[in-house]
Amino acid sequence: MCAVLDLFLASTSPRRRELLTSAGIRFQLCEPGPEYAAPGMDHYQSEAGVPMALALERARRKAHGARAPLAGIPVLGVDTVVDVDGEELGKPLDRAEAERMQRRLSGRRHEVHTAHVLVATDGSSCEEVTSSTVLCRTPAEAELQAYLDSDEWRGKAGAYGIQDQGQAFLRVESGAMDTVIGLHVAAVRRLLAALRAKA
Predict the structure, then answer these.
(1) Which of 47, 48, 102, 140 is 20 to 30 Å from 88 at the Cα level?
(2) Domains of the chain
């Protein structure tokens, strides 16, 4: 089995699994390392710091701390942040918080950064961060409430999924759609190639 794998994915995100599967990249899941360095931190809190740097640090922790079941196969850690005016928007704890986040994004642009860290079994690694700009138009009140009622925002940074059927008010203005979804396939291919070139 290990001979046909390209990587282990240290992630619990179903969207990342779907992106790798659609791209034909051969992978298995493994338990990621601890995402947060500070005790008590979780997905439902925004961390202080530069959002892009936060994403990279979390991707490193996921990859370097992962429990890969087989040797000889690199481990991929990925983390995505929503960046509004240099501040991270985490995942909403409940509908009220999701609504607050949506209203903050309404009528303006924000950035989404996805950090990718690929670690070889000898501990060497390759890293890449990709960024996209997302424009959120001001939705009609009924449109916003319908999206909040859909619960599609649950478990998603910034209280939305760009791919969600229930929303039509967010669009990628520059950069790649898959960066916003949570994993940039082209970056993963580049990292795999870079790691092989080092071997």
Answers:
(1) 140
(2) 2-198 (3.90.950.10)
